[in-house]
Structure formats: C-alpha cells, structure tokens
Automatic annotation (TrEMBL):
Its EC number is 6.3.2.10. Belongs to the MurCDEF family. MurF subfamily. Residues 318-445 form the Mur ligase C-terminal domain. It catalyses: D-alanyl-D-alanine + UDP-N-acetyl-alpha-D-muramoyl-L-alanyl-gamma-D-glutamyl-meso-2,6-diaminopimelate + ATP = UDP-N-acetyl-alpha-D-muramoyl-L-alanyl-gamma-D-glutamyl-meso-2,6-diaminopimeloyl-D-alanyl-D-alanine + ADP + phosphate + H(+). Pfam families: Mur_ligase, Mur_ligase_C, Mur_ligase_M. ATP binds at G109, S110, A111, G112, K113, T114, S115. One of its GO terms (biological process) is peptidoglycan biosynthetic process. The lineage of its organism: Bacteria, Bacillati, Actinomycetota, Actinomycetes, Kitasatosporales. Pathway: Cell wall biogenesis; peptidoglycan biosynthesis. Residues 108-294 form the Mur ligase central domain. One of its GO terms (molecular function) is UDP-N-acetylmuramoyl-tripeptide-D-alanyl-D-alanine ligase activity. It comes from the Bacteria. This is UDP-N-acetylmuramoyl-tripeptide--D-alanyl-D-alanine ligase. Transmembrane segments: none annotated.
C-alpha cells in the first residue's frame, strides 16, 4: 500500500486511535485480514466472523510486525477503532486509489469473470505495472483489499465485481470508480436471489452507469441483455464478440487438437493471430473482452495477440489441466459452476477428448432457485448430446437430476451413473480409468469436488477423500 501514517488513516476512516504511542508511525506494508499474511508494516483488518474473531489475533499480529489493527473495539494494543470495519476498509481503499492515480478497469458478468480478469491482467502487465486480485476477491471486503495493494508506480488496477443483489456493484464502483467498465454476459448464476435474468442484467449494468464521459464501456455484442445496456452510460461504448458488428471480434475460430482456441483477432487498429494456452472455446469471448480493454488503453493488435497467446491460468481449479504419467488427463474446473460455465466446460471436454474416452464428473449448481431442476436436467442431456463417454453425477438431489437428464436423453444408464459422494466417485474412477481417458471435474464450490480431481491427480494415492 502507499505509505500512510496511522493518524492519516484514522482521519480517512473516521476512527479513533487507541494505544498508539506515536500516530505518525506509517503503514508501509499491505492491509490484510488473515493473520498468516502479516509482515512488518502491515495494517491488520480485524473482522468478526461466525467462527473466528480477528480481534483475538491482536497480540500475534503485532508480534509478527503489524503496525496496528483496524478494529471495531479496543484490544489493548495499537488500533484504529471504527464502527464498521468493512465500511472503513472501503473508505481507505477509495482514498488510496484516488491518491495512486492508476487507471481502473472493472469487470463483471455471470460467468468467466475470474478467467477474464486474469487475461486482462496479464495483457496489461505486459505493457506496464498492473495490480489485480488473486482468485475472485470481488465483494465489499475482497475488492478493497486488492485496491489497497496499489503503489505509486501502479499503472493499471484490474478489479472483479460480483453481485448477489441489485445495488452491490453500484456500491463497489463508489469505492473504486472505474475508467473502463466491462460486462461479459448475463446468465443464470444467482438467479435464485435475483429472480430473473432481467434483474441480473439490471445489477450487472451498474458497473457502467458511473463511468466518466472519457471512459469506455466494454459490452458483449453477442449477448442481447448486455448489448442493451449501452444507453445506461455516457462513456464510449465498445462492442466485443464474434458478431460482425463488434468493434473487437474473432474470425476463423477453431480449436487445436488439444482443445485450445485459436482465432484471428481483429481490432480497429489491425488484426493478428492468437493461439491460446487455455482450454475451451469459451475462452475466445474472454480473450476478446481482454483485447477490447487493451485496445482502449492503447495497445496494438500485435501486442495484444502476443500477450493473449502467452497468457496462462492464474487461478486454481479453473480448467486446470494435468497429464498423468499413465496418459490420463484430469481437467479440474471445480472452483465453481453455473449453467453457462457447465455447458462451456462440457464442450471443452468434448473437444479435448476426440478419439479418447471422456468422463464428466459433475455435481450441484447452487443458487438456481426454481430453475434448478430444469438446469440440471439440461446439463445431463447436453453431456449425452456431446457424446461424453460417461457422466458421473455426484451428490444428492441435484446430482440425481443431472443423471436423470442424461438417462432421458437416451443414455439408458450406459452413459451415466449417480454416486453418493466424492469418495464414491474416486473409487469408481480409480477402478475404471484407463490410459488416454480425459476426466472433467466440475460443481459449485460448496460441493468440494476439487478433492476428486486432487485424488485422481495423485496417482497411486489411496487416501480417503472427505465426502461433501
């Protein structure tokens, strides 16, 4: 973080200093909420959770080098005490970002946010110092913690913004006002909370409403609900996609034999060829979104294409491909799942598995509300239509819907099976996998199917897998 004294921080967040002998002492390290991340110069944000109270770690973090705590009560050690630590963290982020002067890029969407964020970060970082979140720190706590990492030499700050309710993204943009706002898509993730895709579109579009007139709204030309957001901003609108009307588009899209997308990137400043290291055709749209951002920030088509071709996956358990010594390929995409990302992952599996046996180990997609049965059924049917060799549905009711969809599509039990938990899936696969097979593992985060991918990756391991 940009160095600030404890007195300055207290003034910014409206807090009171307690047990601080010298308020001129500066915070020179990061702002963290995990005591294991404390280094000398840190400001430790003490949150009270359901199971853990950050205030209980006061002595440990100070001994580890924290200058002070940002806390909601005195702890007998150096602390800035505020009424609400979350709001104080946001106020501090707003102040630091304004002081740093970096160009802010913010993105949202129902699917692909984290993968696209990683692509944008790598493309921009090839040009100038760039800060971006690790994983998907996209809420009222994670976003400020990322923003507070900016330094005086930071040129670009890339932020991912998530939402469960209308107004969430508007609040996040008030903390870190973007110069460039990007909307990837409007799908069915969190449809149970929002009530419909139109409400989701209303929430996602908040990211472009506050853009300055000299800013840029990057919108998906291939998604009607996203494209319809254009009137909600005074900023320049830039369209990306495979549509002929897109300003930044892909031509001659294809997949390599290994399932990696290749295409001709066309921007207003020229065209260049891209062959990605990532897996799955769905990354083409993500790459085009990143290219549109980079173009607006002055990068040439050749520079963008080179950076996209060199970019890898920065976040764990997102189409993470491991080739086992025995020739089995494990695709760990178990970080999260919604209907759109499930379909994309299954198509990627089909492309990777040409001439090989393919396995889709799938679990529950959460937060779908009344759409849950239909969406799980549709994913099971799609697995059969794509000629996936075997669907392994893992878990309870939702998994049974996946298996039922496959059965009703015509698998008649030959191409699908329902197992109770992760350990049962591992036992089945260990007994039946053979060299050359490709295994996709995917479900919502709460299911914990990454344990299946990890167990299968560790060939010969016989340890038990925690059933979820």
């Amino acid at each position: 973080m940009i160095a600030l004294s404890l007195a300055e921080i207290a003034a910014v967040v409206g807090g009171q200093t307690h047990d601080i002998p010298d308020p001129s002492v500066q915070v020179t390290g990061p702002v963290v909420r995990d005591s294991r991340e404390v280094v000398p110069g840190t400001l430790f944000a003490a949150f009270v959770g359901e199971r853990v109270d950050g205030h209980d770690f006061a002595q440990a973090v100070v001994q580890a080098g924290a200058v002070a705590l940002l806390a909601s009560r005195p702890v007998g050690l150096p602390a800035i005490v505020v009424d609400d630590v979350t709001k104080a963290l946001g106020a501090l982020a707003r102040h630091v970002v304004a002081k740093a002067g970096a160009t802010l890029v913010a993105l949202t969407g129902s699917a692909g946010k984290t993968s696209t964020k990683d692509l944008i970060a790598q493309v921009l970082n090839s040009k100038a110092p760039t800060i971006w979140p690790e994983g998907n720190l996209n809420n009222e706590i994670g976003l400020p913690l990322t923003a507070l990492r900016v330094a005086h030499d930071t040129r670009y700050l890339v932020l991912e913004m998530g939402a469960r309710y209308i107004g969430d993204i508007r609040y996040l943009t008030s903390l870190t006002p973007p110069k460039i706002g990007l909307v990837l898509n409007v799908g069915t993730a969190h449809i149970g909370e929002f009530g419909g895709r139109e409400q989701i579109a209303q929430a996602k579009g908040e990211i472009i409403e506050g853009l300055p007139e000299d800013g840029s709204a990057i919108l998906n030309a291939d998604d009607p609900l996203v494209r319809a957001m254009a009137p909600r901003t005074k900023a320049k609108v830039v369209l990306f996609g495979e549509s002929a009307e897109a300003d930044v588009r892909a031509e001659n899209v294809r997949l390599t034999d290994s399932g990696q997308p290749a295409f001709r990137l066309r921007t207003p400043s020229g065209a260049s060829d891209v062959t990605m290291r990532l897996y799955g055709e769905h990354h083409v749209s993500n790459a085009l979104a990143a290219a549109a951002v980079a173009h607006e920030l002055g990068m040439s088509a050749d520079e963008i294409a080179l950076a996209l071709s060199e970019a890898g996956s920065l976040s764990r358990w997102r189409m993470e491909v491991t080739e086992r010594p025995d020739g089995v390929t494990i695709v760990n995409d178990a970080y999260n799942a919604n209907p759109e990302s499930m379909r994309a992952a299954l198509r990627a599996l089909a492309a990777m598995g040409q001439g090989r046996r393919t396995w889709a180990v799938l679990g529950k997609m959460a937060e779908l509300g009344d759409e849950a049965l239909a969406e799980h059924d549709a994913v099971g049917r799609l697995a059969v239509r794509l000629n996936v060799s075997k669907l392994v549905a893992v878990g309870g009711t939702e998994a049974s819907w996946l298996q039922l969809g496959a059965y009703n599509e015509g698998s008649w039990g030959e191409e699908s099976v329902h197992v109770s938990d992760a350990q049962a899936a591992v036992d089945l696969l260990r007994s039946e996998l053979r060299p050359g097979d490709v295994v996709l593992v995917k479900a919502s985060r709460s299911v914990g199917l990454e344990s299946v991918a990890q167990a299968l990756t560790e060939t010969g391991a016989e340890g038990e897998v925690a059933a979820r």
